[in-house]
Amino acid sequence: MRLVFAGTPEVALPSLEAVVASDHDVVAVITRPDAPAGRGRSLRPSPVGERAAELGLEVLKPTKPGDADAVARLTELRPDCCPVVAYGALVPQRVIDIPTHGWVNLHFSLLPRWRGAAPVQHAVMAGDAETGACTFSLVKAMDAGPVYDTITAPIDRDTTAGDLLESLAHDGAQLLVRTLDAIDAGTAVATDQPADGVTMAPKITVEDARVDWHRTAVEIDRQLRGCSPFPGGWTTFRDARFKINSARPTGGAAAPGKLIVAKSGVAVGTGDGLLELGTIQPQGKKAMAAADWARGVQFSDDEALV
Predict the structure, then answer these.
(1) Roughly how many angstroms between the first and final C-alpha of the chain, as a whole number?
(2) Which of 21, 96, 220, 260 is the 20 to 30 Å CA partner of 295?
(3) How far apart are CA 184 and CA 180, in angstroms?
């Protein structure tokens, strides 16, 4: 089939590579416009846009996917299908209708659970035992189209959103190619999503990543893992931001936020127990083991994270 691939961030790169390496013909790529990045805040192409250019593919960067020029060019390209992975903009119906077989979205959840921009993060934060990825036919409503195929993945007690998303990005790329192959062969069947079980997964903000030490140790652990690596769980120490990259629930008890410093490590009181800190990052410093950080700080008896 003639394909126009749509995607923007790094997580979409395995799918772009897999689709380009498949038996299908990728004739162009659609991605978000160049955006400021780096210390100099100079305009840079998206990871997908940069890789597509390296592959010699035509790259379309409309401000909106419904822009007249983009619609005209997509129509000229005559795609049979448009695979899409984390494109980052809502596609209007008139654009969905251009390819013969529509747009096929690779989404990193088991729909209808976790529709939205941050499905993996929300699955980890909610304590789900498993998640996965699915391919579905794009419709106007967010992540609501009929599902072609799925894969599943367990969420272990140490799994971070970053680890899980990396794994799903690679396994999902093969799922996407498998779905495209089935569509081309005329054997693909899409099943409507059930009306029950819909949950939403909006983008995780920096404020969402702030720790409330009155929550349980397990809940905070899930929050930290769900926010890893971005935006990163955080709290404050002596009125300065204090990032917590890793931690784990442990035995004992202390008032919420109270620091328990020992030679063996650093723990913090929560709503129902202690959370042992692993890797932390004080404001303006590099990430380090919590025990190493503690050796360089003079603590008073009532020190706490807030």
Answers:
(1) 56
(2) 220
(3) 6
